[in-house]
Amino acid sequence: MVKPVFVTTTFTIEGYAIREYKGIVRGIVVRSPTLIQGFLGGLKSMIGGRIGAYTEMCEQTRQQAYDQMVAHARQLGANAIVGTRYDGSEVESGATGATEVLCYGTAVVVERLAAGPPPLPTSPFPPT
Prior knowledge:
The chain is α+β, with helices and mostly antiparallel strands. The chain is 29% helix and 36% strand. It has helices spanning 35-47, 52-75, and strands spanning 6-7, 16-31, 80-92, 98-112. Strands 1-3-4-2 form a four-stranded mixed β-sheet. A hairpin with a 5-residue loop joins strand 3 (80-92) and strand 4. The model is unreliable at 123-128 (pLDDT under 50).
């Protein structure tokens, strides 16, 4: 079983202390639309509106970059990534355009702080 890696856009994780910094981790994916996505996107751009084919492609690309970043953190022995960010840019323009998506953050080792008060109940009603 693969241990989970905490990933956050903040620079701290509530209830945990950073014990070691492992370094910057990243995932990068460069992708261009398929022939069908390009055709459908081109048609949609003429009439306006949301371009679902491009949205799906971008979401898949972001997920791949995120997965690469998490794998990189695991290779370094980290159990968390803080300060996570995404960046995207056009690598090649025109009909054969390609987009780069970069996901990056700081890999760290965190340790749970001493136990505090018990968690709040999930129901406003006491157990019977």
